[in-house]
Amino acid sequence: MATQEPQARIGTASDPHTRRPAAWRGVADADWNDWHWQARNSLRRLEQLEQAFSLGDDEKAAISALGRNSLPIAITPYYASLIDAEDPACPIRRTLIPSTEELHTAPGELRDPCGEDNDTVVPGLVHRYPDRVLLLATGTCAVYCRYCTRSRMVGGGEGYSFQREQWRQAADYIAAHPSIRDVLISGGDPLLLEDHHLDELLGMLRAIPHLEIIRIGTKIPAVMPQRITPKLTAVLRKYHPFYLSVHFIHPSELTPEAVAACERLADAGIPLGSQTVLLKGVNDTPQIMRELMHGLLKARVRPYYLYQCDPIAGSGHLRTAVADGVKIIEALRGHTTGYAVPTYVIDAPGGGGKVPVSPHYVVGQMGEQIVLRNYANQMYEYPDTAGRTEAPQAPSDDAPDDAPDDSSALRMIRP
After folding, report:
1. Tens digits of residue pLDDT in 319-359
2. Residue 20: pLDDT band by 50, 70, 90 thresholds?
3. Global pTM?
4. I need a surface site. Which of 26, 39, 101, 102 has the fewest CB within 10 A?
């Protein structure tokens, strides 16, 4: 499916009132800019969604079919303002309003595709890599993405609980394992916690002497930038070195409000890295991805990961071929600044961890020459002679003055 630009690209307008759906145009700015108001007024039920969007029959059927243990629906009024109310193919709309395709599980799709449950050492703490852990602090999100790798547990998933008492168990485990130097706090979305609860959790972790780095993964700047308040940033900046991974999927998310939220975080000395999921009909073209990566850099966010969509149950209509992701990286590398090129990864199903996937730039080897292909599809040789024990051959005294200069390490061998 070709990626379509949503009508909501007017979200780049300077006046946020021009984006608000009719139902909220009379809302006072003080309410609209209050993140608690945004959370309380999120769209969750069919009748609310029908007031904001012209739902198609397929969307209505999918919403009606959601069961008690299904991934719920939640869309903040702010994020709803970025969605084309008439077009079911609107990129952001595809990721939030379910399709009946979501109800079908294809071969290879899994409830827990990354195998996190198998690596859970205490409730809410996943220890897979040698020196870092994943702490799931909450099961609540501001919006529920239909491609969520933790759709089994967020939004009240059966068999999972997220209690503040579990934070102490996680902290005790980390404290007892000196090899752990890095913790990523995720969920759910940790930035939905109240400031004092975040302060409590971060303080508990920062008190562990061998824990060097604390990170939080969040989509809040994209879906509820009102949450990024001066009070919040004052809490976060207390715990440096502290990093924030922000989740953006489409250029239309980079509104003035979202950019201002990122800038406020950056001004607090917090390094920002983006995590983007590659999604069919959303961002699966080089043009859209380049626009997004450039926009993130301008918002002081460094593109970090481009994820192949995990094979969660019912995600087939949102997943691309891996070859599509490789082509996107190939269209970025060399054609724009390296800062705008994320690492394309697949989270290996079953708990294998992140595996980087990239175009093939090493073509082969001819003797001691490595054959390389550059971004323009030109071939070069590189002398791979490091570690060679024999002495280099001295240049011949009788070499002609006009002999070609072979001093360059890289030599183009054909266009």
Report:
1. 999 999 999 999 999 999 999 999 999 999 999 999 999 99
2. confident
3. 0.89
4. 26
Kindly report the number of other CB atoms within 10 A of residue 238's CB atom.
13
**347 catalytic residue (yes or no):** yes
Domains, the chain, ordered by start = 7-100 (no CATH), 117-356 (3.20.20.70), 361-389+407-415 (no CATH)
**The two three-digit tokens of residue 175, written as one number:** 């404290």
Annotation marks residue 132 as catalytic: yes
Which of 152, 310, 319, 380 is catalytic? The answer is 310
Residue 356: count other Cβ atoms within 10 Å of its Cβ. Answer: 10
- Is 78 catalytic? The answer is no
Active site residue: 93, 132, 219, 280, which one? 132
Catalytic residue among 19, 93, 94, 128: 128
**Interval 377-381 mean pLDDT:** 96
Question: Could you report the per-residue pLDDT of 91-100, keeping only the tens digit for each?
Answer: 999 999 999 9
Length reported for the chain: 415
State the pLDDT confidence band at 7, using cuts at 50, 70 and 90: very low
- pLDDT tens, 236-289? 999 999 999 999 999 999 999 999 999 999 999 999 999 999 999 999 999 999
In the sheet that holds 379-383, the strands lie side by side as 362-366, 369-373, 379-383, 411-414
Whether 141 is a known active-site residue: answer yes
